[in-house]
Amino acid sequence: MEILIQQLFNGLTIGSVYALVALGLTLVYGILHIPNFAHGALYMMGGYITLTMMTKFGLHYWLAIFVSIIIVGLIGVLMERFVFHPLREAPPIHDKIAAIGILLFLEAFAQFFWGDEYQSMPTPYGQVVQIMGLTFTMQRILIVVAALVVMILLYLFLKKTFTGATIIAMSQNREGANLVGVNTNKVAMLTFMISGGLAAIAASLSAPINLVFPGMGQLVILKAFVIIILGGMGSIPGAIVGGYILGFSESLGATYISNDYKDIIAFVLLVIILTVKPTGLFSKGGH
Amino acid sequence: MPLLSLKNVSVKYGSFTAVHDVNIQVNQGEIVVLLGSNGAGKSTTFRTISGLSKPSIGEIHFEGKKVNRRSADQIVHLGIGQCPEGRKLFPAMTVHENLRMGAYVLRRKKDEIKHLFDHVYDLFPILNEKRNDAAGSLSGGQQQMLAIGRALMSKPKLMLLDEPSVGLAPLIVEQMFAVIQKINQEGTTILLAEQNANAALKIADKGYVFENGSIVLEGTSEELFANDEVRKAYIGA
Amino acid sequence: MIFLETRNLTKRFGGLVAVNNVDFTIEQGKINAIIGPNGAGKSTFFNLISGFHRPSSGQVIFKGQDISTLPSNKIAELGVARTFQTTNLFEQSTVLDNVIVGHRLRTKSNLADAIFRTPRLKREEAQCREKAMEVLEFVELNNVSDKLVGSLTQEEKKRTAFALALATDPEIVFLDEPAAGVNPDETDGLAELINKMVDKGITVCLIEHKMQMIMKIADKIMVLNYGEKIAEGLPEEIRNNETVIKAYLGGSAIA
Amino acid sequence: MVKVLNKRNIIIALIVFSAVFPLLTENNYLIHIMTSSFIWMIGVYGLNLLAGYTGYLSLAHAGFFAIGAYSLGILTVKAHLNFWLAFLLSLVITGLLGLLVGLISLRTKEHFFAIYTLCLGYIIYLVIDKWEGLTEGVRGLIGIPAPTGIGPIKFETEVSHYYLVLFFLLLVVLIMYRIVHSLSGRTYIAIRNSEDLAQTIGISTMKNKLTVFVLSTLFAGLAGALYASFVRFIGPDIGSISITFDLLTYLLVGGIGTLSGPLVGTLIIVWLSQYLQDFQENRMLIFGPVLTLLIIFYPRGLVGAVSAWNTKRIAKKEQRLSHNTTRIKGEPFIESEIIPDKKVKEG
Amino acid sequence: ACNSTEKKPANTKPAAGGGESKTEEAGTVNIGYTGPLSGPAAFYGERTLNGIKMAAEEINGEGGFEVGGKKFKLNIVSLDDKYLPNEAGANAKRLIQENKTPIIFTPHSGGVFALQVFNQQDKFLIGAYTSEPKVSEVGNELTVRIPPRYDGYLKPFTDYEMEKFGKKIAFLPTASQYGKDWSEKLKAHWEKEGGKVVFNSSIDFAKETDFFTIVTNALKEKPDVLFIGGASEPTAKVAKQARELGFKGGFIVMDQAKVDEMKAVTGSYDLMNGSIGVMPLSESKNSPAIPDFVKKYKEKYGETPGSEAGLNYIGMYIFVEAMKAAGSVDDAEKIQAKMQDGVSNIPDNVRIYQFNKFTGGGFDGELEVAAIEDGKVVPIKVAK
Ligand SMILES: Nc1ncnc2c1ncn2[C@@H]1O[C@H](COP(=O)(O)OP(=O)(O)OP(=O)(O)O)[C@@H](O)[C@H]1O
Ligand SMILES: Nc1ncnc2c1ncn2[C@@H]1O[C@H](COP(=O)(O)OP(=O)(O)OP(=O)(O)O)[C@@H](O)[C@H]1O
Ligand SMILES: CC(C)C[C@H](N)C(=O)O
Ligand SMILES: [Mg+2]
Ligand SMILES: [Mg+2]
User: Fold this and answer.
1) In terms of residue numbers, what domain contains B71?
2) How far apart are CA C209 and CA C211, in angstroms?
3) Does residue B237 carry a pLDDT above 50?
4) B203 burial via Cβ count (<10 Å: 0-12, 13-18, 19+)
5) Which of the two residues, D317 and A108, has the higher pLDDT score?
6) In sequence order, what DSSP letters do the residues of E142-198 get, joined into one string?
7) Is the CB of A166 under 6 A from ligand 3?
8) Interfacial C residues in 65-104 facing D (CB < 8 Å)
9) What keywords were assigned to this record (chain C) (predicted)?
10) Could you tell me if residue B16 is inside a domain?
């Protein structure tokens, strides 16, 4: 029983990270119909920038995260401006390849700039907390809570503000949004900004429990894609639920089935769900 | 001073010139109709006025200001609303949300928006009935009404209507033109593209006839109505 | 034997009943028209017959066979062709290429034939091309056969859609608003073409809002409203039907 | 007409060049690289057939490449089958698995299909990685034999291997050429352009898509089997997503949906990355942006760019002959106005 | 074939800045390297390459080495293979054809296997930085395995941990082949000694985002000892998370990980009290050459060298000595025949590992083991 609860918590932690990464991915997909393969690289950049801010500039963890959100958000904006914007009329495959190009570049850049070795990120929340025989570290509790807060804020932003409604409108018809006076370029940039910011948050939260290195984005990106397709591409609740499903299936799968095959479990789960419901759990019919 | 004027405007898609050396003037309070068969360049002209396409040559002035370098969203802020071809609705949003998006430029004026909602629901009671349905689930005609309603929500000084009667039932077409007239009487200037010359000329002050991207004929409604070629091509025997 | 009929045909989308218990028979060799207000369920009715949607209940019987659960390609093979309300064509191909594949369903050659260049493939390729030329001639588009569909005028697109439907060798074609977005002059041309199709022995069923045209060419009209059939009969009868005038035609209908 | 002739000439020139290539150089390394580019080309054709002609972008092709390679490896190394029997069987196995995967994955469309196959590819990779009893896991399969000779022809040397791979490449090109220029090819393009419409004109889209999918996995499997007998050692990494990305890059740089794109793209990138080697780890700093820029400015790859340039030139000529009556459209992929309308209706 | 060219090839740069003017009398020997220099394994590839480069620069700095009365300098030609066997194969072909390299270093078993397909035919030596036993078992004479066999660690590690903590062990090594082979051997030995393996799984550091789940599962079995290992940094994370989850026992650290590198992640040695592993080069007192090497390496590459750099460094020296003994810089077979001389003649000032013998296609030497007690690294005597 204790193990179950401990593993549920572990699943929740990792699921929170997945959900944050997947959210950024699904947002860009939902609004601009770009499957951004470079999203993992943004995540990686987020990790490095927070780390650099802390170690080189001595910023506090939270301040470093804030700077990281801004910088990675801006990288996202640049990507939109210089790559995806010119490609908005092109067939969908081109976005993917362009994104791969960006991915290659950013990884090489990180290797060039920060070196290729593993680095670890210090955290002010290293304390271990024991509650009823269960072990939590502050950092992990922080991940879970922060992810929740970010998701709620994002939800409120999309559902309750006019700007949020604008984003949703644009996801459904870009030209239509343009014609009611929405500056669609701005919204596209904003979307990438948010997406990059989410990646930075996810990386900064999870880096202290793992490591920072050029390939760190690859750990999450494939899973993030699994999640958003599981949840129905472009669906925000889908990304959140999908993130947690994957987190739980990994921790419980590793515990009760097999650690070696736990990744396969997650992917097979996906194949089964999609075989039954080809457009994902939260898709709204049609395409 | 005309409200809107196009001076020697040409528009290209790639190397193909879709609109060639067009001059149009729309005065405050008028209904002006653009006639022309398919592919003549009406929609392109509309897209250009709205800033979705950029003229390769020529100038567009609105209220005396040159606007041809403005982006589409700025144009809406200036007071030009368009109900586009293909409607361009937000299919997964409800009718009500679509209309609210229409009021994007007025988003800080809550009272005014409320007023506009009433106005649009008044014009199109069916939209009120379906206010919580997704726009994508409406029939073609209902969607057309929603598109017009959405354009109205920005309280435009000039409204561009691109073939609002396409695919609509006769009863609805009739209502549609009545609504257009009503909107016009309430003070909105209207530029209308139509195939249905008969109905359009009935409510219009003047018109232009497009052929292969150029204006081949212009005049008051009466003049055009009386023109044999127009009758033959656009009104039917 | 009845040519094509629907029995209690019903389609629900969630809570909405788009087509409600419609019984309709289509007469062979005639022009059967369907009219009705926007959202009445006309296009949905077509979608049900052509296998694009599955009926919620009821049947579609074509020449004695229940086709209500067949996939659309099988229905096409049986001789039922259709066009779409929003002209749906292979935009990036030429007119000829569009129409050539239209006859694909009457051919048997497969991938192996392609790889080994069998005589059957060569024969069938010629056959498809011939068919394509024939129908393009029929719809009077032979002079634009090399153009990309994307560059055609609306009317030419409509004709290409007709040609594509005809290339499948249909016994019956369903045309969804063939004259929408086409000017009156050209509308007459299309009407003429439809008549020509019937003369060739093809049964036509069409949806249209252009009353002038419908009243002129239809042999029989069904009126849908809110998914239900509210009237059926000859153009004369429909024109004067009170219910129809109230629901659809309005006062100055026949302008 | 001129264009067709051109295309044909280019192809003939390429064939002649590749036939005499080993005679032009003593350098085994060049032959080695050429042989491996030929192998990749076969895989890229697999991707091109599916993505370029039916519009379904499969990201599982490295998986099928790996299945082909591992089937051959396991059948020769572990089951000690005769090489050519194993070769044949590895194609059969790839085809059968392709059929299975196609059956489930082709129910999805567009981005869903892409990502769905991405995941399937990853599953294939994981299975290879984890199923140690069969695949030797991360250790990889060692000692895969070179093809055994057929009659007097032996495949031990670099050069003879080169010709063997060239033979299969030419076979694949021929098959592709015939498919593309047949009724089947038209059918696939019709499906790419509009699946709904294809269905309503009586084309069984599922059957056609499945056929193409299986054939395209067969190409990938063939490439994999050739790879295994060429490198003679395989590890799970050959099934990883980065291999799919590589194949895709070759295809897009060359020109998707074109017959010669896979040849051109693979050749250029493979050789380019060899020469960029001198930049060591920093070459991705150049290669990444170059790839992105290429996609932005030449969306239909180099082959597309050349043919666009050709049409433009011809058009100019015609224009000079008969003033501005020719209508030249912009890039053909610009959607017509009708499509967005459809999207509104279908949500 | 002549691998000693008077002029350096156009596309290669000499690794050392040694005076180029003197090359008139000296020949250049090109030494090949193919390994991961980009991608996730780049850090590993770079470290191995650094060791080779450093050795070459030192040798060149002293004016090169003399073979058959002629002076030669070394030139390292390195190519990136992204950790892929086929790329390694292509690189090797290129190195042989364009640079005539008699020796090609590669730091991964996949690359070695790919090279073994043609190295005997094309006559070049593989400097195999891998402990995969199979590379030596296939009977490829021209393969020289650089790292020592790890079997020797089994006994000292097991003895130490069993005595200090107990007989129940959980396995959490890296999912590489290396880690799996290690596990297998350790399992056999541990059980032979009367111990019990209560949990046995591996962690793929290239795919795992968080180790809490698997560590929780391992600790559920109440082990006394954890067997961990892989790249140092993630291994350190595993140890750290095990401590966070309340683990109080000891660690057996596989030889790929170095406790000094792990310390950079855990912050102090305290967290690793009770660990046993290989003596990190920087902490080793076994050879007077080590502090000097560590200092030089640190100056050059800004980090403390581990065995990846150290072993390849000494490996380069051994090859040079073997060339001298063989009297040839290009005949791979002759050089191979003199590998024992190469080992015997390692100059004292570079002898950072105590290699004595060249047997079974690899080097054999004394093993150095260290444990962490009270926050300090203490050497452990290995009984022969
Ligand atoms: N995006 C585009 N790319 C290339 N050509 C285009 C594009 N949009 C329109 N055209 C071409 O420009 C010409 C004018 O088209 P436009 O849509 O303005 O005509 P229209 O008068 O609105 O016709 P309709 O009555 O069909 O709406 C046509 O030949 C059309 O094919
Ligand atoms: N796929 C669908 N999902 C949900 N509702 C639908 C769907 N297709 C059609 N409807 C609804 O069914 C009703 C009938 O639509 P249909 O398109 O058949 O009307 P129609 O008679 O063709 O109208 P129009 O003349 O405007 O084209 C409408 O209320 C429409 O909103
Ligand atoms: C903004 C979009 C991605 C919204 C998304 N369709 C949702 O489910 O809320
Ligand atoms: Mg138009
Ligand atoms: Mg309809």
Assistant:
1) 1-79+159-164+188-237
2) 6
3) no
4) middle
5) A108
6) TEEE-SPPSHHHHHHHHHHHHHHT-SEEEEEEBSSHHHHHHHHHHHHHHHHTT-EEE
7) no
8) 71-73, 76-77, 81-82, 84, 86-93, 97, 100-102, 104
9) ATP-binding, Nucleotide-binding, Transport
10) yes
Residue-range definition of the domain harbouring residue C142:
88-169
Domain boundary among C169, C191, C218: C169
Residue pairs spanning A and B at CB distance below 8 A: 72
Count CA within 13 A, CB hemisphere, residue E276. Answer: 23
End residue of a domain, out of C147, C169, C191 = C169
Which residue in chain D is spatially nearest to E93 when comparing CA positions?
D29
Closest of A136, A151, A246 to residue A202, by C-alpha: A151
Write down the pLDDT at residue B146: 92
The reply to whether D280 falls in a domain is yes
Co-location of C254 and C198 in the same domain: yes
Mean pLDDT of B220-227: 89
Number of domains making up chain D = 1
Token duo for residue C84: 């779409």
Domain that holds residue D92: 7-299
Query: Among all ligands shown, which has an atom nearest to the Cα of B196?
Result: 1
- The share of chain B scoring above pLDDT 70, in percent, equals 97
Of A96-100, E10-14, E228-232, E242-246, which gets the smallest average pLDDT? E10-14
Q: Which of C87, C92, C151 sits opposite D327 (nearest CB)?
A: C151
Q: Residue A73 is which amino acid?
A: G
Residue among E93, E109, E122, E174 with most chain D CBs within 10 A, to mutate: E93
pLDDT, tens only, D95-111 = 999 999 999 889 888 77
Residue D316 has pLDDT above 50, yes or no: yes
The count of other CB atoms within 10 Å of the CB of residue E184 is: 12
CB atoms within 10 A of CB D242: 16
Q: What is the pLDDT of residue D330?
A: 34
CB pairs under 8 A between D and E: 82
Q: How far apart are CA A137 and CA A142, in angstroms?
A: 9
Tell me how far apart the alpha carbons of residues A254 and A271 are, in angstroms, rounded to a whole number: 19
Mean pLDDT value of segment D303-331: 61
Same domain, C254 and C176: yes
Is the distance from CB of E123 to CB of E333 less than 8 angstroms? yes
Give the ipTM of the model, two decimals please: 0.83
Q: What is the rounded CA–CA span in Å between residue B217 and residue B234?
A: 13
DSSP per-residue string spanning A209-233: GS-B-TTHHHHHHHHHHHHHHHH-T
Average pLDDT value for residue range B146-152: 92
Q: Kindly report the nearest CA distance between residue E86 and chain D, in angstroms.
A: 6
CATH at B217: 3.40.50.300
Range B177-191 average pLDDT: 91
* CATH code of the domain covering residue D139: 1.10.3470
Ligand 3 atom closest to the Cα of residue A237 is: 8
Residues of C in contact with D200 (CB under 8 A): 50, 52, 72-73, 76, 81-82, 84
Q: Which tokens go with B11? A: 């528009």
Q: Collect all residues of chain C within an 8 Å Cβ-Cβ radius of residue B38.
A: 153-155, 181-183
Let me know how long chain C is. Answer: 255
Q: Count up the domains in chain B and report the number.
A: 1
Q: How far is D194 from chain C (nearest CA, A)?
A: 6
Residue D134 lies in a domain: yes
Instruction: Label residue E253 by pLDDT band (50, 70, 90).
Output: very high
Q: For chain B, say whether C83 makes contact (Cβ under 8 Å).
A: no
Question: To the nearest whole percent, how much of chain A has pLDDT over 90?
Answer: 47
In whole angstroms, give the CA distance from residue E140 to residue C222. Answer: 86
Q: What is the pLDDT of residues C39-94, one digit of tens each?
A: 788 999 999 999 989 999 999 999 999 999 999 999 999 999 988 876 677 777 78
Tell me, yes or no, whether D304 lies in a domain. no
